């Protein structure tokens, strides 16, 4: 856990298709290619695994923040298991306590609005 894995794939694109893809960001009205149409018929060529180590002092900084009375939380867009492993490594995961996984942006906006009000 704690690694980023990217699938690497390719396909040969020629002529009008290549021009549409390359100019799509310049002229969105003319070339509205959906992600699915760009990513279809790909040939998988492998995986790229990136190690994203924590900074050496992360755990001690979080420990000091907790000791000084701060509530420390983690908000991330990582996969649930990746986030749980990082939280465990830095001492954020309590033996007993609440852990939430939010799935939708609307939930985050509502929770934030409720906390502000």
UniProtKB/TrEMBL annotation:
**UniProt xrefs under InterPro entries:** ATPase_P-typ_cyto_dom_N, HAD-like_sf, HAD_sf, P-type_TPase_V
Say if the entry is tagged with keyword Nucleotide-binding: yes
What keywords does the record list, in alphabetical order?
A: ATP-binding, Magnesium, Metal-binding, Nucleotide-binding, Translocase
**SUPFAM superfamilies registered for this protein in UniProt:** HAD-like
Q: How does it sit in the membrane?
A: Multi-pass membrane protein
Q: Which Pfam families match?
A: Hydrolase (PF00702)
Record-level GO cellular component terms: endoplasmic reticulum membrane
Which N-terminal stretch is annotated as signal sequence?
none
Q: Name one GO molecular function term.
A: ATP binding
* Protein's cellular compartments: Membrane
Gene Ontology BP annotations? intracellular calcium ion homeostasis
Q: What is this protein called?
A: Uncharacterized protein
Q: What is the lineage of its organism?
A: Eukaryota, Sar, Stramenopiles, Ochrophyta, Bacillariophyta
